Amino acid sequence: MGYDAFLLLSFGGPEQPADVMPFLQNVTRGRGVPPERLAEVAEHYHHFGGVSPINDQCRALLAALRPEFDQHGLADLPIYWGNRNWHPMLADTLAKMRDDGIRRAIAFVTSPYSSYSSCRQYLDDIATARAAVGPDAPVVHKLRHYHDHPGFIEPFADGVRQALAQLAPAPRATTRLVFVAHSVPIWMAERAGPSGGRYEAQLREVAQLVAQRAAPDLEWDLVWQSRSGPEHVPWLEPDINDHLETLAGAGTEAVVVTPIGFISDHLEVVWDLDTEAAGTAKRLGMAFARAATPGTDPRFVTMIRQLVQERLAGAGPEQEQRLGDLPMWDTCADHCCQPPPRRGSGGRA
């Protein structure tokens, strides 16, 4: 297939204090998130000056992609950026692409996993934005999931090694790897992928691949963070802070926490882990180190370019760079990752 543009599609975030509440209202609209939860999350942003790090991280990634594309046969592919929840909004970006004469674009989404919020909702966002732009809006095709690509796994493995080196010497038997991802409602986890459960399965595969490379002698767990939504809606558990309590009670002296749910240091990383979870570990007398996310690691930047070239070449599964064993596909089926059974059943904040 021929494409005449590349689109970086991300979540978006506030860039000044006045943006915080409108941004959070965009994120949670129609999901029944209590006002007190919005106010609580708003304070997390205000702790950092009302600015989310995510937009600057997208800008850094764009800056790294241009020379990568130029040096590997993609110099003629213009690069655009649009967000789901804050400026530059996706519909505005598609309108600019239309005005620039773009007809078909290939999109990299800054979430590697299957679930309604991390995959299907982005497809819905594309459809909604194209409808808003009108009949001349460019066609946008999303790239495949990349959770088990070497360019995603290897930076995390190095991050775990470096984090372990930061810890004071401790017996390996009392040191544990804790992999963390954004919690989602149980209904979303059950509907992830074509037959359910794929979000958790992908994350467990990532955790296993990273642990095997970085510290195969250490035990590891997969836990969750950043729960939001109505209290009556069940979400994936345990929460990272509750899990640290459990580990401390079992004699764990040191933990390396690895945010495999994120490609870069989002607010959920710098607040929920670097601030809250680190504080919990300190209170428990537990040594704590947080592994780095891929960010603009050259291997991750190269991965994105390789995914684009895979699609341009029409590469099949046998030609794709993968380390895992879960089934993979280029285009999601219509029945994958279905939306909630009714609005107000929970969502992300």
The spatial strand order of the largest sheet comes to 2-1-3-4
- What is the average per-residue confidence, as pLDDT, rounded to a whole number? 93
What is the helix content? 40-55%
Count the strands?
8
Into how many domains do the coordinates divide?
Answer: 2
End-to-end separation in angstroms reads 36 Å
CATH architecture of the largest domain: 3-Layer(aba) Sandwich
For the largest beta-sheet, the strand count, sense and barrel status come to:
4 strands, parallel
CATH class of the largest domain: Alpha Beta
Structure description:
With 349 residues, the protein is of the alpha/beta class. The chain has 2 domains: 5-146 and 296-319, 3-Layer(aba) Sandwich (Rossmann fold), CATH 3.40.50.1400; 150-290, Rossmann fold. The chain is 44% helix and 13% strand. The chain has helices at 20-28, 35-47, 54-71, 90-99, 116-133, 150-166, 186-191, 198-214, 240-249, 267-284, 298-313, and strands at 5-10, 79-83, 104-109, 139-142, 175-182, 220-225, 254-258, 287-290. Helix 4 (90-99) crosses helix 5 (116-133). The model is unreliable at 344-349 (pLDDT under 50).
Task: Summarize the helices and strands and which ones pair or pack.
Elements: E1 5-10, H1 20-28, H2 35-47, H3 54-71, E2 79-83, H4 90-99, E3 104-109, H5 116-133, E4 139-142, H6 150-166, E5 175-182, H7 186-191, H8 198-214, E6 220-225, H9 240-249, E7 254-258, H10 267-284, E8 287-290, H11 298-313
Parallel strand pairs: 1-2, 1-3, 3-4, 5-6, 5-7, 7-8
Helix pairs in contact: 1-2, 3-11, 4-5, 6-8, 6-11, 9-10
